[in-house]
Design a protein that fits this description.
Elements lengths: L2 H13 L2 H8 L3 H15 L4 E4 L2 E4 L1 H25 L7 E7 L1 H8 L3 H7 L3 E7 L13 E4 L8 E9 L1 E5 L1 H7 L13 E3 L8 H10 L6 E2 L3 H9 L4 E5 H4 L6 E3 L8 E8 L6 H16 L1 H4 L5
Helix pairs in contact: 1-2, 1-3, 1-4, 2-3
Length: about 300
């Protein structure tokens, strides 16, 4: 049996569609379909009901799913056991983080990482989707919520602070809010509904109440760009707004809930020298830049 066929089957079962599985695996839907067809031919059963709203498992598919998950766990455990053989401070480490952290924190510190560990190369995956560390979708993750996923080593590294921003042109046209409650009378830029809710998102939505946001998008840089051209008021991490011209911070004394940052790694890889070096580096830089990350630098 081809392990790849099982891997594609699991992706379709998890995502509920060929297109979703293709996005998760970074291939085209035709490739996913080919592997699923091969597996169905191999067992001479139909594994999925092809419906208009997606792919649903048949009884045979449910039976295979239970076995395939066990095989998948064993395959990834085997891979981690080989990966965890210490080869020194050299090689590639894959880090996943949200867009809010990639440029203003991780990329900002790349020169220092290279100086300290010239043999290590980072692969940086910028995604809001919770990549699975147990399945080696990434080696290290920085997340905005403490997860309950697999056998992970988890460490809090700080808190990301947020501020409200608008352009001078917006303030001239609509005025500036004097209190957070005034936001319900302004043009506010929000996250999309699919974005994970956290204390910061909930705080903004409580302030605007039933007011319909003027614009919604998830990337912080896009929300800030919209504010910069006068679309409305955006709530973004202070790090993202740092040094950006054409915007003004509003209500700087307002207490806005921040988001805890969590550094994660699978325990099997935590002792690998190159991974340990990256973990320690990220933690050390987060402590050195704690005030900046929390938005306490003005």
């Amino acid at each position: 049996m081809n392990w790849d066929d099982l891997r594609y089957f699991l992706a379709v079962a998890g995502e509920g569609s060929l297109s979703g599985a293709a996005r998760a695996l970074r291939v085209n839907p035709a490739t996913v379909s080919r592997h699923v067809d091969a597996l169905e031919e191999r067992f001479a059963v139909r594994l999925f009901d092809r419906r208009q709203d997606g792919y649903g498992l048949t009884p045979a598919g449910e039976k295979l799913l239970a076995r395939a998950r066990g095989i998948e766990s064993e395959m990834f455990a085997l891979g981690r056991s080989f990966d965890a053989e210490d080869r020194g401070l050299a090689g590639t480490v894959t880090v996943t983080a949200t867009e809010s952290l990639t440029v203003p924190f991780l990329i900002r510190n790349l020169p220092l990482l290279e100086e300290r560990h010239p043999g290590i190369r980072l692969h940086l995956v910028n995604e809001y989707r919770m990549l699975n560390l147990s399945r080696r979708e990434a080696d290290v993750a920085i997340r905005l919520a403490r997860p309950d996923q697999g056998d992970l080593s988890i460490r809090k590294i700080g808190e990301m602070g947020f501020g409200l921003y608008a352009s001078p042109a917006y303030i001239e046209a609509y005025g500036a809010p004097q209190t957070a409650a005034d936001l319900r009378n302004h043009r506010v830029i929000d996250w999309l509904d699919g974005f994970p809710e956290n204390a910061t998102v909930l705080w903004l939505r409580r302030q605007i109440g039933d007011t319909t946001p003027i614009f919604s998008t998830n990337p912080a840089s896009a929300r800030l760009a919209a504010a910069r051209v006068g679309v409305g008021i955006a709530l973004v991490p202070c790090m993202v707004a740092e040094g950006v011209t054409g915007i003004v911070r509003l209500l700087p004394d307002e207490v806005i809930p921040g988001v805890d940052l969590w550094l994660l790694v699978h325990r099997d890889l935590a002792r690998l020298a190159k991974v340990r070096a990256v973990l320690d580096f990220i933690y050390d830089r987060a402590q050195a830049e704690a005030d900046r990350i929390a938005g306490r630098c003005g």
